[in-house]
Amino acid sequence: MKKRVRMMGVAKPGSILIELLAVMAMMCPAMLVAQDKAPTADGGLKSVYGKRFAIGAAIPGADLKNEEIALLSKHFSTVTPENCMKPEPIHPEEGRYDFTGGDALVKMAQSKGLTVNGHTLVWHYQCPDWFFVDNGKPAGRELVLKRMREHIAAVAGHYSGKVASWDVVNEAIDDGKGYLRNTKWTQCIGDDFIAEAFIAARKADPKADLYYNDYSIEGGGKREKTLRLIRELKQRNVPINGVGIQGHWQVGRVPLKDIEAAIVAFHAEGMKVAITELDIDVVSRSASGANVNAREKGADDPFVDGLTPEMQKKLADDYTRLFELFLKHRDKISRVTFWGLHDGRSWLNSWPRKRTNHALLFDRSLQPKPAAESVLELGRKQ
Ligand code: G3I
């Protein structure tokens, strides 16, 4: 790709200075500030896509193997803590916080020049019961609201200036016919727990982008219900910057039309759109979405010895079509984060039952799969 460059400083055309600069530039190209550096042939995902949208990965913490750190540094510019900043690990008892995991992850990320996306302040899962109990009885609205606000103030306050965004509320939309998921948050505080959470998050961190994050909101009733939520929050001037479409899809069934409609619709509401937890399951399952509570029986483990070439091709095609779509809407997409660094770290190896999955771009030996090569090639061509 022709390098478009900009001479440092400003000089009149034809002047001695511009001639001198031109000679120096030929002798020392570093003098020039390359505006859109062409992605290098061996550049990773972040070098190939970084000028369009950030490429991220969820990681369990800072204690990664050296080769995993190398993979992370080459391909990703941003990380999401898979678990260590969730309410249960970070606030196990009222008033007792454990920031060790999150702090180590932030420190490692900063040392590698990676940004961090906080995940997640308010969720119905992995949230300790103490939030909702008052002397052995269900706690009332004011007490649970106070606890939620204190939790957000402490956690988002602790990481203020250290995270680029927060998944403030995770998976609050009902999977069925209802509007909001029936959880202890809605039972104790009411539907406005979402607005209150965003208000508290903005108060604790004046700068981070605040996201609503959920699965299956690209289509079906959940997209409409998410749009309703965004509009209600905007109507109340609640600070919300973006929507996270998680992206836990299944091979051969990636709902591209719905995904495109959702990206366009959420963006039209003034939202940044992030793909926050991308993976493509290659082992059949009946559960759609990503309801962590879903469990399935079954013992078939079709790819225990690795993916067949046919399945590698199907996976590569699905990821390539997805990234073609993301590139088409690069003006709307802030980030694409994979839910795991490589196949060996994927949650899909144990949900909704134990399986050998191959849902990401890099295999268990941290090698790029055909899907990775195809996505890289696409980015280099566009
Ligand atoms: O850390 C404890 C450990 O101390 C304990 O010995 C062990 C056995 O009970 O559990 C460990 O916690 C586990 C945690 O992962 C860390 O490994 C939890 O049981 C387990 O439920 C948890 O699973 C995570 C799940 O969210 C629930 O929090 C998955 O790794 C994680 O990939 C998954 O991610 C979610 C997103 O946060 C939200 N969107 C859906 C996505 C997939 O479910």
List the helices and strands and how they pair.
Elements (H helix, E strand, L loop, with lengths): L4 E2 L9 H12 L5 E2 L10 H5 L4 E6 L6 H10 L2 E4 L5 H4 L9 H12 L3 E8 L10 E2 L2 E2 L2 H18 L6 E6 L13 H5 L4 H12 L4 E6 L5 H16 L6 E4 L2 E3 L5 H13 L3 E10 L27 H20 L4 E6 L31 H12 L1
Parallel strand pairs: 3-4, 3-13, 4-5, 5-8, 8-9, 9-10, 10-12, 11-12, 12-13
Antiparallel strand pairs: 1-2, 6-7
Helix pairs in contact: 6-8, 9-10, 11-12
The structure holds ligand G3I.
Describe the model:
The chain has helices at residues 16-27, 45-49, 66-75, 87-90, 100-111, 141-158, 184-188, 193-204, 220-235, 256-268, 309-328, 370-381, and strands at residues 5-6, 33-34, 54-59, 78-81, 115-122, 133-134, 137-138, 165-170, 209-214, 242-245, 248-250, 272-281, 333-338. An eight-stranded parallel barrel has the order 3-4-5-8-9-10-12-13, surrounded by five helices. Strands 1-2 form a two-stranded antiparallel sheet. Helix 6 runs parallel beside helix 8 (193-204) and helix 11 packs parallel to helix 12 (370-381). Mean pLDDT is 91; it is low at 1-14 and 24-37. Helix 9 links the parallel strand 9 (209-214) and strand 10. It has 382 residues and is an alpha/beta fold. The site of ligand G3I has 11 residues, from loops. Ligand G3I binds next to loops.
